[in-house]
């Protein structure tokens, strides 16, 4: 049998304040310039990204674009 919880009217201690690290909403809605391209990929790769995008409920094109952006940013200084 579990213990019965006894509630009191004691004041609760406040925890440590966490610094806000999130960007403001205006930066979250920022639109970057995009360029339409035609790109051939394997059926296996496309199926993978479509499946993952459905799980995350985002467009697969956005997922591919994010992957390409991350790759470019990671390697831009190594060229």
Outline:
The chain is an all-alpha fold.
State the separation between the terminal residues, measured CA to CA.
66 Å
Mean pLDDT: 85
Biggest sheet features: none
Put simply, the count of helices is 3
DSSP helix fraction: 40-55%
Strand count:
0
What radius of gyration results from the CA coordinates?
A: 23 Å
Weakly predicted, low-confidence segments? none
Order of helices and strands: HHH
Structural class category: mainly alpha
The global form is elongated
Beta strand %: under 5%
Note down, in words, how this protein is organized.
This protein is mostly helical. The chain has a domain at 45-79. Helix content is 43%, strand content 0%. Helix 2 crosses helix 3 (60-75). The radius of gyration is 23 Å and the shape is elongated. The termini are far apart.
